[in-house]
Amino acid sequence: MSIFEGLKVIDCGSFIAAPTAATLLGDFGADVIKIEPPGAGDAFRQVPKLPGMPRSDHPYGWLLDNRNKRGLALDLSKPEGQAVLHRLSSTADVFITNYPLAVRRKLAIGYERLATTNDRLIYASFTGYGETGDEAGKPGFDVTAYWARSGLMDMVRSDASTPPARALAGMGDHPSGVSLFAAIAVALYQRERTGRGTQVGSSLLANGVWSNGIMAQAALCGATFTPRPPRENLFNALGCYYRCRDGRWLLLAIVNEQRDWPTVAKCLGLDDLLTDPRFAKQADRFARSSELIALFDAAFATRDRDEWRARLDAAGIVFECVAEMGDLSADRQMLAAGVLVPFENDQMLTIDSPFFIDGATKVKPRKAPAVGEHSAQILREAGYDDAAIAGMRDSKVVA
């Protein structure tokens, strides 16, 4: 059984974070209607064409974040388009939007307006900087509100002397969308108990600080921060990353160093270090981490990554390969664990939603809709006859 089968969801959002929450609902069987402007549709469709983005014949971002949805092209700048959306909302279970607050007021799609005709509606609001305060109306993307403002951009730079680190497309949007999905799920549970809908929300700013929570809490506690040193001078050689003979990288993540130090040394062919007084105790290894990193660098440079992978796996060492994007489609564990799944009736893979519920099946991922692909179907279900639909098309209210 798909747990959200029969749930009606309106995705009146753009780009990634808010629509991601709708995608997750659709993965578990909800009927999701994607609202886009007629013509070019959601501007997110054009992102793969931007300079620096991977080149592809497929609209990969759109495929990922708008699967399992039906498409309705609706001009919300016109009163007739707003009336259609209001009618759809009156029978919906969930309404999701990340439109700017001022735009919502202009279009009459705020919670107060929609709740007057549907007191069971879950209204999911997503913003860049929250809904109160001087910056509530400020526009934001994940690179600004999530990445830069939260301190993540500064904290993950390779070392204190390098420029702040650049984000990847959607890196903050996707976890933020999971937060909005969680809020919707909690609200649906509350509705089961009270019979009434409510408004829920999240923001890029809140999720960015949450993602940087350990360091942010340290700052709130008045902690003193140590500038991040270059890789060659990291504090712990057993928590460093190393380049192999073929140029690929591995990351060691040894937590129980007292137990695993002898195993690591032997695995790297550095048995003599076990009797070297410079590295006898953990405190010694920390104090001489630069020397130890140099020795590890030389050792890792003698074999290719896959050779080291086999040796480290066999020894039970906690590590991971630093994957490149071309590695993902052949990652056997991602396939076996259902991280990657094929689209329905297609061999192309996509990324599954990052959780499962025992006993609740997910629907097979369907390709994201073309602009207005299901407009007529959705309008008929809402009670419009063919003549009304034709009239709306003639006036370019729908496409």
Secondary structure topology:
Elements: E1 8-12, H1 17-27, E2 31-36, H2 60-65, E3 69-73, H3 79-90, E4 94-97, H4 101-107, H5 111-115, E5 122-127, H6 142-148, H7 152-155, H8 173-194, E6 198-203, H9 204-211, H10 213-220, E7 241-243, E8 249-252, H11 257-267, H12 282-287, H13 289-300, H14 305-315, E9 319-321, H15 332-336, E10 340-342, E11 349-351, H16 375-381, H17 386-394
Parallel strand pairs: 1-2, 1-4, 2-3, 4-5, 5-6
Antiparallel strand pairs: 7-8, 8-9, 10-11
Description:
The protein is α/β, with parallel strands linked by helices and 399 residues long. It has 17 helices and 11 strands. The strands form 3 sheets. It has a 6-stranded parallel sheet with strand order 3-2-1-4-5-6, with helices on both faces. Helix 1 (17-27) packs across helix 8 and helix 6 (142-148) runs parallel beside helix 9 (204-211). The protein is elongated. The model has no long low-confidence stretch (mean pLDDT 97).
Shape: elongated
Helix share of residues?
25-40%
Oligomeric organization of the protein chains: single chain
SS field, number of helical segments = 17
Biggest sheet layout: 6 strands, parallel
Computed over alpha carbons, the radius of gyration is: 26 Å
Strand order of the largest sheet: 3-2-1-4-5-6
Class from secondary-structure proportions: alpha/beta
User: What's the total number of strands?
Assistant: 11
What pattern of helices and strands is seen along the backbone? EHEHEHEHHEHHHEHHEEHHHHEHEEHH
